[in-house]
Specification:
about 110 residues, alpha/beta, six-stranded mixed sheet, about 40% helix
Length: about 110
């Protein structure tokens, strides 16, 4: 798993590349937490275009970061979900709390 980040106009952009599963969850959680909590951003966009796999552990990682950032008043949006991620977000209703950005080019 690679976690790539950049900040532009008070928006933190995060790109997840690889698999988000039991093997990579702890690394991903720590990487996301470090960058999210240290960023001076008023919103976060997570790009999932290069996320090749995500299981329930990965969902838990994203939900945990959502809860932490919600407490700080910073919304999280999802951009460019892979086909597999799109199915998971639709089936679980995650788009209700982390809305999908349409046509986002990061």
């Amino acid at each position: 798993m690679n976690v790539l980040t950049r900040t532009h106009h008070n928006v933190l952009y995060i790109s997840l590349n690889g698999e988000l599963d039991e093997k990579t969850a702890e690394y991903t959680r720590l990487a996301l937490e470090q960058v999210m909590l240290n960023a001076k951003a008023n919103r976060i966009v997570i790009d999932l275009a290069n996320l090749s796999f995500m299981d329930s552990t990965g969902i838990g990682v994203l939900l945990g970061r959502y809860k932490k950032m919600k407490d700080r008043g910073v919304p999280i949006y999802i951009a460019n979900p892979s086909i597999q991620a799109e199915r998971i977000f639709q089936m679980t209703g995650l788009y209700q709390i982390m809305p999908k950005l349409k046509g986002a080019n990061l």
